[in-house]
Amino acid sequence: MNIILIGFMGSGKSTMGIRLSYRMKQPYIDTDKYIERKAGRSISEIFETDGEDAFRQMETEALEALIADGIRDHVIATGGGMPMKEENHALLRKLGVVIWLRIRPESVLERLASDTSRPLLQRPDRETLIRDLMEKRAPMYAKCADVTVDVDDKRVERIMDEIFTKSRGVWKRKKRMKYE
Ligand code: S3P
What we know:
The protein is an alpha/beta fold and 180 residues long. Helices cover 59% and strands 12% of the residues. Bound molecules: shikimate-3-phosphate.
């Protein structure tokens, strides 16, 4: 069964994804990297030349491709905006157990203070933007997720343990549904 990480920019999806992939001995996929490889351009370049809508379309296509390829027993980290499109929810949930790494806006601000790689954050009013975006996104993350894990002020090991503990039941239920 795939493990899928969703959550706001800076919530640690990639870091956790890589650590989980080591611990579970399951390959790791990052949908941002997948899209960049396929497009032959960085996310910033895609936003700049094609715009955000085009990128969002690429995100949906990436999920569809992973499902079509029959990807299983992977750890998959997604871009922070992936669950903002409702049609992606069904795709994500079909793909595996969806884990929301929930983070407070203050922690995002602190973690991404010097980030230059995320096009949405390249504005002077970063703090307001993060708070507004978080308010809009939180209900969508909640709706999409099978499991929620709070990440603020926690060490990676502890977050991993919580992911395992909380996912176990969902995992079994989804597996049964898939193979019955
Ligand atoms: C985005 C998050 C980014 C990336 C793109 C848009 C978002 O991924 O997909 O810059 O809308 O939140 P991370 O969450 O890995 O930073």
